[in-house]
Design goal:
With about 150 residues, this protein is mainly alpha-helical. It folds into 2 domains: about 100 residues, Winged helix-like DNA-binding domain superfamily/Winged helix DNA-binding domain (Arc Repressor Mutant, subunit A); about 30 residues. Helices cover about 70% and strands about 5% of the residues. The chain has 6 helices and 2 strands. A two-stranded antiparallel sheet has the order 1-2. Pfam families: MarR. Keywords: DNA-binding, Transcription, Transcription regulation. GO terms for molecular function: DNA binding; DNA-binding transcription factor activity. InterPro entries: ArsR-like_HTH (IPR011991), HTH_ArsR_DNA-bd_dom (IPR001845), HTH_MarR-typ (IPR000835), Tscrpt_reg_MarR-type_CS (IPR023187), WH-like_DNA-bd_sf (IPR036388), WH_DNA-bd_sf (IPR036390).
Length: about 150
C-alpha cells in the first residue's frame, strides 16, 4: 500500500496562504484612498466585525504577536483609524474601536477581498466552493481539537 503524502497538503496550504496574502496586498494597495498597509488592514477588518477588541483578542484573530500588534495599534491610533477605550469594569483593560476613517479603510479592504475571492474561486462551481470550505473547516477543527487535547 502506498504511503500517503500528508506534507503535500500542508505545503499547498502554505503556498496558497502566501499567494493569497501577496495578491491581497497588491489589490488593496491599488485602490484610491488606501492609507494603511495590508497588514494593518487585518486589524481594521477584525475591528469592523466586532464592536471592540482587546490586544489579546486581536492577537488571536490576526495571528500577530502582542508586541508587534502593540506597535501597529499605536500607529493606527495616532493616524486616527482607531481609538482606545478603557474598560469601565477593569481600568487595566483597553479596548480598541474603529473611527470613521478606519471604517473607510475597512470598506476598501472589503473591496480588495471581494476581488480576491473572485480570483480565488475562479473555475469552481458553487457546490465545489462549499465542499472546499467544508473541508477546510474540518481541517481547522481537527487541528484545533488536537491542540486542545495536548493542553489537557
Amino acid at each position: 500500500m502506498a504511503q500517503k503524502d500528508y506534507a503535500h497538503a500542508g505545503s499547498l496550504l502554505a503556498k496558497a496562504r502566501a499567494l493569497n496574502g501577496q495578491l491581497f496586498a497588491r489589490l488593496f494597495a491599488r485602490q484610491d484612498g488606501v492609507r494603511i498597509t495590508s497588514e494593518q488592514s487585518k486589524v481594521i477588518w477584525q475591528l469592523a466585525r466586532h464592536d471592540e477588541m482587546t490586544t489579546t483578542d486581536l492577537s488571536l484573530a490576526t495571528g500577530n504577536a502582542k508586541n508587534t500588534l502593540s506597535v501597529m495599534l499605536k500607529k493606527l491610533e495616532v493616524a486616527g483609524f482607531i481609538e482606545q477605550r478603557t474598560c469601565p469594569n477593569d481600568g487595566r483593560k483597553k479596548y480598541y474601536i474603529l473611527t470613521d476613517a478606519g471604517r473607510e479603510q475597512s470598506r476598501l479592504s472589503d473591496t480588495a477581498s471581494e476581488q480576491l475571492g473572485e480570483i480565488f474561486y475562479r473555475g469552481m462551481s458553487a457546490d465545489e466552493q462549499k465542499t472546499f470550505e467544508n473541508m477546510l473547516e474540518r481541517i481547522v477543527q481537527n487541528l484545533t481539537d488536537h491542540l486542545n487535547e495536548g493542553e489537557k
